[in-house]
Amino acid sequence: MPPDDPRPSPPDAEGGRLPGWALFALAVVPLLLVGPALRPGQRFLPLHPVAFEPLASERPDAAAAAWQRPDYLAADRVFPQLSDQVVLRRRALAGEPPTWDPDLGLGAPLFAGTMAGVLYPPNWLQLALPPDRAAGPLALVALGLAGLGTARLLARRGLSPGACLVGAAAVQAGGWVVVNLHDGMKVDAALWLPWQLAAVEAVRARGRRAGLELTLCAALPFLAGFPPIAVFGAVAAGAYALARAPRALPFLALGVAVAAVQLLPTAAASAESLRGPQGAAAVARQSLPLETAASLAVPDFFGAPGEAVFAPHLPAAWWVAGADDAAAAQEANPLEWNLFAGAAALVLAAAALAVRPRRAAFPAALVVLALGFAQGW
Question: Are the beta carbons of 181 and 187 closer than 8 angstroms?
């Protein structure tokens, strides 16, 4: 139904329930993508820590093997994310507060960091398991949550279980999710958007505990460890709530307020950082050329996202970049220039616009706004 449809919500709008077989099917894509990393001796990391000293000198054969297929562009997953998680677990097991790392330089805040996600519930698995071993299961959980949230939203909009699974698979196997999965905090911050939209539908249907559900789903992305993405999700959820159920807006605001327990220390630490805020002009210079839209349908058009190559070694960036985009092309990397959604997803989206234009208008508008911001229209 379009936002202004006066008819009541579908009968299942409150629960978003799916049959058991559909829930089982939601695990297929995560297992295909992450399953091999769950085998004994494997780690779901862009680069195994054994590649670095002093471990490399102690285990030279393992270090050489680690450098065979590294994911350079997701190196933040090892330093500082994994290194912070190791310190957090050590301090937690010793009964010490997870606030400060005295061994990093002159000391550095742990709780206020933006990558470890201390208060994000799935990350608590890293207290039970060593963080390197928990990386694979956490990636599996992230993909599962992304698919389940999408299917839940579509079910609450009255779609069939088969259609819900198609939408969930499109999200789980989407290019942005897959290429950023090593940087799990980015995916964690984004995956709660469909959950928020589904909760808005529950509020619209006056479901029990719908307000609590929406508050939690609005708080969790801000606890995941990548606030900028959480902000984009909050804005999208707010626009959806304004169109579908304005009374849901206070619950969204309450969720951000709940996350202040993490955001306020982070803001205080950020104020002391050597990285200052960037103005609008600086942000605009980092926008993508319009021609990067080609990667929506063509995977790796600008290079494989795991390769450590930038514009001088990325001919496609220079082929499509005009004179005005020279600065952006000079700093191009495959991870940021990869917008791949998949040909099947694009065809289905085009069909939705053609067959149900009013119902597809809102998601289409979100896509246009997201591309417009990323490409600096």
Answer: yes
Residue showing tokens 């959604």: 341
Say what angle helices 210-223 and 260-271 make with each other, to 10 degrees.
20
Listed residue (173, 187, 42) closest to 120, CA to CA: 187
Determine how many CB atoms are found less than 10 A away from the CB of residue 277: 9
- Find tokens 């997201």 and name the residue: 370
Q: Is the pLDDT of residue 64 over 90?
A: yes
Structure tokens at 152: 């839940």
pLDDT at 4 over 60: no
Average pLDDT over residues 343-348: 92
Does residue 224 contact residue 120 with C-beta atoms inside 8 Å? Answer: yes
Q: Which of 86, 69, 68 is nearest to 77 (CA)?
A: 86
Q: Angle, to 10 degrees, between the axis of helix 260-271 and the axis of helix 249-258?
A: 60
Contact by Cβ (8 Å): 137, 38: yes
1 closest CA partner among 121, 157, 172, 192: 157
Residue type, 158: G
Rg, the chain, Cα only: 21
Q: CB of 333 within 8 A of CB of 315?
A: no
Q: What is the DSSP string of 100-162?
A: EETTSTT-EESTT-SSS-TT-GGGGHHHHS-HHHHHHHHHHHHHHHHHHHHHHHHHHTT--HH
For 155-176, the pLDDT digits (tens) are 999 999 999 999 999 999 998 9
Token pair of 90 as six digits: 């050590």
Which residues, including other chains, have CB under 8 Å from residue 242's CB and lie 6 or more apart? 249
Name the percent of the chain lying above pLDDT 70. 96
Tell me, rounded to whole angstroms, the distance of Cα 260 from its chain centroid.
20
CA distance 63 to 54: 10
* Model pTM score: 0.92
State how far the Cα of 12 lies from the Cα of 346, in Å rounded to an integer.
28
What does the buried/exposed string (b/e) look like for 309-327 if buried means 16 or more CB atoms within 10 Å of the residue's CB?
Answer: bbbeebebbeebbeeebee
